[in-house]
Amino acid sequence: MHDTAAPLAGYMTKPSVALADYPTLVGTEVGVSDWISLDQGMIDRFADLTGDRQFIHVDPAAAARTPLGGTVAHGFLTLSLLGALGPQIIPPVAGTVMGFNYGFNRLRFVAPVRSGRRVRARLILSAFEPKGAGQYLSTFAVTVEIEGESKPALLADWLTLSVLAPG
């Protein structure tokens, strides 16, 4: 039932699941990622790359005087981590040669991630459907948890597209 998707080797870390078996995963948690630390250096680099240098992200002294009590990661930085955390969790469809981010149906930034905190992603496969010849759309209910906090950093419905090898 499971095999390794050679074209994605080194990127996707989960064993692949046969196309016929993938729909049986709908409604189940497919996994939880490793924790990743969002330290001030990462936040500053993201600010430099995006040009979003709002003080709550990059000025510890000014941010300390706000109700946040210090700097926080950009919501979009937290969201962008799904590109690294997803491959740890998502089992590819057997025969997948390419995978794409397809977008989000819903996205909410629920709680700020304070500098130095750790986050991880938890994914539930909520839908799986054919999208075209050799293409399958997966929808994942994503929760990005903040270590030691009851509220998550974000909740989202993440869509990914799997493109299978012809034949």
Key descriptive features of the protein:
8 strands, 38% strand, 167 residues, six-stranded antiparallel beta sheet, alpha+beta, two-stranded antiparallel ribbon
Per CATH, the architecture is Roll
State the separation between the terminal residues, measured CA to CA.
Answer: 18 Å
The string of secondary-structure elements, in order, is EEEEHHHHHEEEE
**Number of discrete domains:** 1
- At the first level of CATH, what is the class? Alpha Beta
What is the oligomer described by this structure? single chain
Mean pLDDT: 93
Briefly note the structural class of the backbone: alpha+beta
Q: How many individual helices?
A: 5
Task: Find the CATH superfamily.
Answer: Hotdog Thioesterase
- As a whole number of angstroms, the C-alpha radius of gyration is 18 Å
Could you say which overall geometry the principal axes of the C-alpha atoms support?
elongated
Number-wise, the strands total: 8
**What name is given to the CATH topology?**
Thiol Ester Dehydrase, Chain A
Beta-strand share of residues: 35-45%
Helix content: 10-25%
Question: What are the segments in which pLDDT stays under 50 over at least 5 consecutive residues?
Answer: 1-6
Main pleated sheet:
6 strands, antiparallel
